[in-house]
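This section describes the prediction task in plain terms. A model, or a person checking by hand, is given the sequence of a single protein chain and must write out its three-dimensional structure as a string of C-alpha cells. No templates, partner chains or ligands are provided. The sample shown here is typical of the held-out split.
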Amino acid sequence: MNKLMNAEKAMEKAVTNAYVAVETAVVAGYKAVESATVAGYRKIEDGFVEKFLTRDGESLEEAKARLKQ
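The expected answer:
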C-alpha cells in the first residue's frame, strides 16, 4: 500500500510540474505577443501623427499632447 501511495504522490507532483511549465510558457508567449503588438501599434501611431497631424515646427510629442486636449 505504501508503494502505491508513493507512486500516486510522484505522479501528482509530475503532473503539477507539467501544468506549471505549460502555464509559464503560455504566459511568456502571451506577453511576447502583447509587447510586439503594442510596439507595432505605437510605431504606426507615431508615424501617422508625425506625417498628418503635426503642425509646422511642432514635434511629435507636442502634437500628441495637443491632440490629447
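For orientation: Residues 23-69 form one domain.
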